[in-house]
Structure formats: structure tokens, C-alpha cells
């Protein structure tokens, strides 16, 4: 007598509506973190996302997990923009410009401070996203330098400091008003990165390690 072999159960996948709800929560959280900071009530995030409070807590059991997801998603989208630029044009400096403008659109200046103020900087998800980003930006910059497009005395840290500063509204200025000038001024900065350099910069090229030092 043969014993029937039980059918193997397929791994359950999140339903499409569940994935959409998660994406809407992350999008709403990103917008509200930029507008109000990381302490915005989760109930308000749920309201903007158009979901119930229980849906937010089912996806993100605490505030830190939601903030971390927002920061990682921003990094991932910026990396995707750079990879797409390289695939489309093969032009390293064009990819560098795409990175800078994409990071400004993602409001890196508003989101990055949350990394050090609200949760563990060494969380594996954050470490992995950050490493992908830094390696790709470093690779793009190295390729641009090799091609004679980028001045040799700048580092990844120089780029990120400039993007953060240029995409942050001046004190006392309404965000919508300042937003009109972000990409214009960012492009002025990027043009200044082109080789050959027209001046000697003080100090050494800034790395991401330099930025993380207290």
C-alpha cells in the first residue's frame, strides 16, 4: 500500500493590494517626514496614505522600522537612477548628474539626519543600502575621473554635502519657493566639478567616512 506524498505548499506571497498599501505608507511617510520631521504621528501618516492604523502597524511595528524603510527606499531609488543612466548613455558624468538630481528630488537633506537621530545606524538593511549607494557613486566618480570628465580632487562626501546643502531650503524660506531653484543651483555646482579644474580646492577630497566621524 502506497502512502500518498503530501503536496508541497507554495510559499505565500504578499497580495498585490498588500504591497500597494505598503508602498502608499512609505510614500506618505517620506512626504510627511520631509514636511514635519520624523516625529509626525503615525495616525497622520495612515490618514495621508489612505489606510487604517492597523495596516500601518501590521507593516511597521514601530516608528524606527518605518523610518528605516523610508531611508532605504530613498537610497534604492537613487541607486536605480544612477544604474539607469549608465545603462542608457554609458556617460559617467551624465550618471553622476542623474545621481545628484535624483538625490535632491528624494529630499536627501531632510531624510539623512534621521539615520543618526532615530535608529541604529548599523542595522543590516541600512548598512546594505548605504553600501550599494556609496560603492556605485564611487564607481561612477572613478569612471568620470578616468574619462577626464571629473576633476580629481573631489570625493563622494563632497558630492553628498553639496546635494544636501543645495536641496535644503534657507532658513525662513517657504519650501515650495526654494524648490524652484534647487536643480538650477545644483547644476551650477555640478558644472564646477568638470575637468579641467579651474582652481585648487583647500583640504583633501571628502569621503563618506569623513562625514561619519564625530
TrEMBL record:
Residue ranges of every copy of the HTH tetR-type domain listed in the record: 19-78
Name of the featured protein: TetR family transcriptional regulator
Gene Ontology MF term list: DNA-binding transcription factor activity; transcription cis-regulatory region binding
InterPro entries: Homeodomain-like_sf, HTH-type_TetR-like_transc_reg, HTH_TetR, Tet_transcr_reg_TetR-rel_C_sf, TetR_SbtR-like_C
Native species: Streptomyces glaucescens
Superkingdom of the organism of origin: Bacteria
Sequence intervals crossing the membrane: none
Pfam families: TetR_C_43, TetR_N
DNA-binding region: 41-60
Keywords, ordered alphabetically: DNA-binding, Transcription, Transcription regulation
